[in-house]
Amino acid sequence: MTFSQKILDWYALNKRSLPWRNTVNPYKIWLSEIMLQQTRVAQGTSYYLSFEKHFPTIFDLANASEEKVLKLWQGLGYYSRARNLHFTAKHIVTNLNGEFPNTYKELVKLKGVGDYTASAIASISFNEQQAVVDGNVYRVLARYYGVDLPINSAEGIKYFKTLATEVMHSSDIRDYNQGIMEFGALQCAPKNPDCTICPLNDSCVALQKNLVGKLPVKLKKIKVKKRNFNYLVVVDGNGNTLLQQRTGKGIWQNLYQFPLLEEEADAKTIYDLYNKVLPTVKAKDIRLFNKDAIVHKLSHQHLFTHFWILKVDEVLEDGIAFSDLEKYPVPVLIADFIKTF
DNA sequence: AATTCGGGGAT
DNA sequence: ATCCCAGAATT
Questions:
Q1: Is A146 inside a domain boundary?
Q2: Do A300 and A171 belong together in one domain?
Q3: Distance set, CA A315 to CA A97, A195, A231, A319 (Å)
């Protein structure tokens, strides 16, 4: 039996019941694929259901505000996915008459859609012969065929896409693609897979050569930068506070946060500097909310964070009631603070 | 070609 | 701590 047939047979027996598996609607498939980029099924599922409910069609998504889209995306991370999702919905409604592109070639032109996602939508929604290559597929192919090319090198990316295309099933591409990913997620797991019950264990190169723990090969680990965040939590005469939207480059684009001073600082320094971000506000009292820094860990940055409670007498024009903060899309770091404050 | 985008779960 | 997740865009 061929590799692809074994994958298909395994999938038929082991596939999970997931919300986006009840449809081939390209809008729904697109939604699920964007959400699941670099995201586990367990984390993404509730967000998928939420978006499906709030935006049943691409028109609903296109007509929504970015703020609402980001709010529903809050906590899922990689927020450019949400901004691009919204941009592409508007693009399809405005420029493509609301009709979703139906070929790999056209799909890959969409913002936020790369080789993987275009292949997934083309194969699942339109039955086009396109092999998906995600993290699961890299692992399954690297092990089964004993390939030690780094999966994140230009040569590796090209090689694995070619290999995936060569070994894909010639029919049932829809189930085959989902099957090889499911197989990678459940059976050919990153760590300590149970190869004794694997249907491919009679022909897996990595298993025969005892390389299961060594493959796939991935180049270099990332370097983590440390940053010091000092958030100014203003409390004005009405008990309201201030938020600012993050603009420009960097993390959390277009999300909201308290006014931020990014530097090492003690109470005196903060007191001296607060008017840099709040020039119109006179501070009456300032106190440190958390003595030990809250360390918020992102993949490339560790944020050592202090929250400063800044009391002022005046009533701020753009003050926001604390009970209204939940309306704004904020990073998890801010949401966690609001919860405990 | 290398870096940068989040957050969480498993080990 | 480290790894990695149904990757893509930017530098």
A1: yes
A2: no
A3: 48, 66, 20, 7
A262 is catalytic: no
Strand C footprint nucleotides (protein C-beta < 7 Å): 2-9, 11
Q: Is the CB of A298 under 7 A from strand B?
A: yes
Looking at the fold, whether A138 and A57 belong to one and the same domain comes out as: yes
Distance A1 CA to B4 C1' (A): 43
**pLDDT tens readout for residues A258-291:** 999 998 777 678 777 777 777 777 878 889 999 9
Over residues A223-246, mean pLDDT:
95
Q: Is the CB of A250 under 7 A from strand B?
A: yes
Whether the CB of A304 is less than 7 Å away from nucleic strand C comes out as no
CATH label of the domain that carries residue A160: 1.10.340.30
Residue A39 lies in a domain: yes
Q: Which of A236, A259, A258, A242 is nearest to A318 (CA)?
A: A242
> Which residue has its C-alpha nearest to nucleotide B10's C1'?
A191
**The domain containing residue A252 runs over which residues?**
225-340
- Integer distance in angstroms from CA A268 to C1' B7? 33
Identify the active-site residue in A33, A99, A106, A262. A33
To which residue do tokens 């998928």 refer? A48
Give the tokens for residue A278.
């709040």
CA end-to-end distance (rounded Å), chain A: 61
CB A125 within 8 A of CB A102: yes
pLDDT in tens, A54-110: 999 999 999 999 999 999 999 999 999 999 999 999 999 999 999 999 999 999 999
- A178 lies in the same domain as A136: yes
**What token pair was written down for A246?**
């993050």
